[in-house]
Amino acid sequence: MASSLCSNAGNFLLFLALASHLASVSFAGNFYQDVDITWGDGRAKILNNGELLTLSLDKSSGSGFQSKKEYLYGKIDMQIKLVSGNSAGTVAAYYLSSQGAAHDEIDFEFLGNLSGDPYVVHTNVYTQGKGNREMQFYLWFDPTMDFHTYSLLWNPKHVVFYVDGTPIREFKNRESAGMAYPKNQAMKVYSSLWNADDWATRGGLVKTDWSKAPFTASFRNLNAMGCVWASGASSSSCSSVNNTWMWQEFDSASLQRLRWVQENYMIYNYCTDVKRFPQGLPPECSMS
Ligand SMILES: *[C@@H]1O[C@H](CO)[C@@H](O)[C@H](O)[C@H]1NC(C)=O
Ligand SMILES: *[C@@H]1O[C@H](CO)[C@@H](O)[C@H](O)[C@H]1NC(C)=O
Q: Annotated Gene Ontology MF terms (predicted)?
């Protein structure tokens, strides 16, 4: 789909023409302008003139929001401060997804824990409706004390999950080896806070303590630099003045950071779970 790329000269000129206007839009990060609250019946709140968004969860409901725009490739940054104290059983999700059964999806899920026990960062990538590519990590800081930046990079080369600018996971484009890669379904940004105490914490052993409800997670500085998909127009244009992310590949320093995280903080990798895949590990697992 060449029309979806931002690389052609026409788009680039359009881009320059719009750059001064778009700059203010793409870097302002105002939740009133950028997202719709989609569920939670008042439990999701936009505060501080649009600079802050809080999601809450109690026994009757969680809450969530989604971006107004859809993207076909992008770099999405968001700062999140996770539920403090006893967050066991709760999950805060932050992901990109397209619609339908054969959808593509790129997931961050933050699995809560008892006070003092570590949060788990759960990640997954779906291509054409197929997931089962979970990798999980601990963090090198307490994500409930402060805001930290969680980013998703999605370009034609790879999908990368970042925590405070450090890559924790890469999903490469291996179309040349016949594997599906997300590239022709536009995605929105979604976030939600919900109860998943049937599986989230120690595999479901630790339940949500509702006496601690409501649980609250906070979000700020959503910065979506992406190729905005105009539905119906079957084309997209980059909404950022600066699309270096579109061509970004790992340099050796990034690879070193990625290895550091994977050696020290990764606690689950589907690619090493031979019991789960008795028929053989997924093909990408044997490729570098
Ligand atoms: C919660 O803490 C326990 C004990 O340290 C740990 O095994 C587990 O991985 C932590 N996270 C989750 C989400 O279960
Ligand atoms: C473009 O992005 C790069 C990397 O994120 C950054 O270092 C650079 O300052 C940006 N340039 C402009 C003009 O915003």
A: hydrolase activity, hydrolyzing O-glycosyl compounds; xyloglucan:xyloglucosyl transferase activity
Is 19 close to ligand 2, i.e. is its CB under 6 Å away?
A: no
What total of structural domains would you count in the chain? 1
Whole-prediction pTM: 0.87
Pocket around ligand 1 at a 6 A CB cut-off: 111, 113, 117-118, 120, 200-202
Residue 235: closest CA among 74, 15, 11? 11
The helix/strand/coil state of 265 is coil
The residues annotated with a catalytic role in the active site are 105, 109
Do 77 and 221 form a contact (C-beta atoms < 8 A)? yes
Question: Which residue range is the domain that position 205 belongs to?
Answer: 9-286
* pLDDT digit string, tens, across residues 209-266: 999 999 999 999 999 988 888 765 555 666 555 688 988 999 999 999 999 999 999 9
What is the Å distance from ligand 1's center to 79 Cα?
Answer: 23
Q: What is the pLDDT of residues 152-182, one digit of tens each?
A: 999 999 999 999 999 999 999 999 999 999 9
226 by DSSP, 3-state: which? Answer: strand
Is residue 2 a part of any domain in this protein? no
Q: Name the token pair of 262.
A: 């994977």
Which atom of ligand 2 lies closest to the CA of 242? 1
Show contacts of 6-12: CB within 8 Å, 24+ apart.
Answer: 6/73, 6/227, 6/236, 6/237, 6/238, 6/243, 6/246, 7/246, 11/237, 11/238
* Size (the chain), residues: 288
Q: Distance (Å, rounded) from C-alpha 250 to C-alpha 253? A: 8
Residue 3 lies in a domain: no
Indicate which CATH number applies to the domain containing 211: 2.60.120.200
Please report whether residue 150 resides in a domain: yes
